[in-house]
Known about the structure:
By secondary structure, the protein is an alpha+beta fold.
Amino acid sequence: xxxxxISRHIAASPEKxxxxxxxxxxxxxxxxxxxxTIIEQDRRPGGRSAMMMHGPDGEEVPQDGIYLxxxxxxxxxxxxxxxxxxxxxxxxxxxxxxxxxxxxxxxxTASARHWTEEAMKQHAEMGFEQGWGACADQLQALxxxx
Length: 146
């Protein structure tokens, strides 16, 4: 499997982590100083998942795809291989964001599955570990602060 993954133990309940994970994405989704604006989140399999990433120098990077799964309180899965109305797109990955109870807290795991080893290596070289790790750290800080 051509997968990259990061994981964090968060000292907060699964309910709290799920709430921040899904309802406060604009606060943690991109490594700062980047941020997102949500265009649409139709939280169901086949529903549109669309955001715009904004960079510090005015960059705009669209993220448009669909949800493959939405398991309330546990995980959501999306892909950029298909956009709204099931239009094929240039696939990069399937993203999986999931939480599980662990001790008195929650285990957060985010994974990116790629169609090819080459695409996975490209994502790693783009800074997957650093970027997705920074997002996980931001999520963890939000969950543990409130």
